[in-house]
Amino acid sequence: MMAPPIPPRSLRLLPEEVAARNFWEMAREAVAGDVSRLSLRDFWESFNDACAALPSPGNPAVRGILACRVVEAADNDTLRALSGDARIGILAELDAALHGWKLKERPVVRLLTTAPFSPEYAAWLTPRVSKAADLLAKGVDLAFQRRNWSCMKGEDKLAFARRTAELYAQAFGINPPPTVEPFAEGPSPDGRILSGQYDARRNVIRLNTAAASSWSDSDSLFYAAIHECQHAVQYHLMDGRLDAPELHERTLLRWNDRFYVTWKDSTLGNAAEYQAQIMERDANFVADTIVKTTIYCEMMRSGVKPGNTPLSAQRRKTCPHR
Ligand SMILES: [Zn+2]
C-alpha cells in the first residue's frame, strides 16, 4: 500500500489549530449545533477535552493559545450567536495566557465586537434610559437652545451640557455626577474630529469646543454629552458602584476598557471595530434613543403632528409625555 502524500508544511495545521477545530466539533455536538445554548459547563468540558490533546495541557499559556485559536477558527456569525457564558469562558482562558497582549488583542476585539447585549442588561438599562429621557425632556429646553445657539456664550453652552450630565446621572443614581470640562482640538489630518471623552479616573466629561466639533449645534452637543455620560455609567457599572444585578456586560466592559480600539486608529477595519466595540455601541444606542425621545416629546408639546415626521410609531409609545 502506498503511503498518502504528505501535505506541504504550509498546509499542515498546528496542534492548537487542530485542537480548536475539535473544540468546536465537541461544543456543537453538546448543544445540537446551537451555540447560543452552550452552558459554561459544556464550554469547560469541550475546552478541557480539546486541550488534553496538547502537550502540557495544564499550562495556562497553552490554554491561552488554544483560546486564541478557538476564536480564530470561528466565523463572525458563530461568535455573534455564542452564549454569554461561553464568551466569558473564552475570555477567562485568554486571560490565563499571561503574556502576549498582542496575541490576545485580535480574539478579544472580535469577541467584544460580536457580543450581543443580554436580555438581563436590556431589562436593567431600559427603565433607566426612560427615566433619563423623562428628566431631560422636562429639564432641558432643546428648542430654546436650538433657536439661540448661534448667539449663546460658551459658558451658557457649557451650562447646558452640565445640566444634561446632572439629569442623566440622576436617572442612573451616579453620585456625584460627572463634571464637564471644555477642551479645544481641531480635526485629525483625515478630517475626523473628537466630540468628547470620558475620564474615568476623575469622573470628568470633556467636550470639544473646536468649530468643527459637536459644539457647533445644540442637538449634536446634547448627543455628545449623553454619549459620554453613558461611558460614565459603564465605568460605574463595571466597578460595582451602581445598583445592578450580576451582568455579563460588566465583564465585557472591563475587557473593552483594557482592549479599547481608539478612534484615532485610522484604517477602515479599525474604524468599524471602533464603532462596534461594546462600549461605543452601547453609548451610541443610548444617546440615539434619548435624543429621538426628547425631540419627539418636544414636538408633541409644540403641536407638530407625528405623522408628518420621520419618527416611527414605536417612538410614540416610548414618549413619557404622551
Ligand atoms: Zn464613546
Q: Mind explaining what this structure looks like?
A:
The protein is mainly alpha-helical and about 325 residues long. The protein folds into 2 domains: about 15-115, no CATH class; about 120-320. Helices cover about 60% and strands about 5% of the residues. The chain is built from 14 helices and 3 strands. It has helices spanning about 15-30, 40-50, 60-70, 75-80, 85-95, 100-115, 120-140, 140-150, 155-170, 220-240, 250-260, 270-275, 280-300, 315-320, and strands spanning about 180-185, 195-200, 205-210. Strand 2 and strand 3 (about 205-210) form a beta hairpin. Zinc ion binds near residues 231 and 280.
Can you give keywords for this protein?
elongated, 2 domains, binds zinc ion, 322 residues, 4% strand, disordered C terminus, mainly alpha
Protein topology:
Blueprint: H1 15-30, H2 40-52, H3 60-72, H4 76-81, H5 84-96, H6 101-113, H7 119-139, H8 142-148, H9 154-172, E1 179-183, E2 196-199, E3 204-208, H10 218-238, H11 248-258, H12 268-276, H13 278-301, H14 313-318
Parallel strand pairs: 1-3
Antiparallel strand pairs: 2-3
The structure holds zinc ion.
Which ions and ligands are bound to the chains? zinc ion
Number of helices: 14
Helix content: 55-70%
How far is it from the N-terminal to the C-terminal residue, by CA? 82 Å
Q: What series of H and E elements makes up the topology?
A: HHHHHHHHHEEEHHHHH
Write out the strand line-up for the largest beta sheet, numbering strands in chain order: 1-3-2
Uncertain runs:
308-322
Strand content: under 5%
Q: Helices and strands: which structural class?
A: mainly alpha
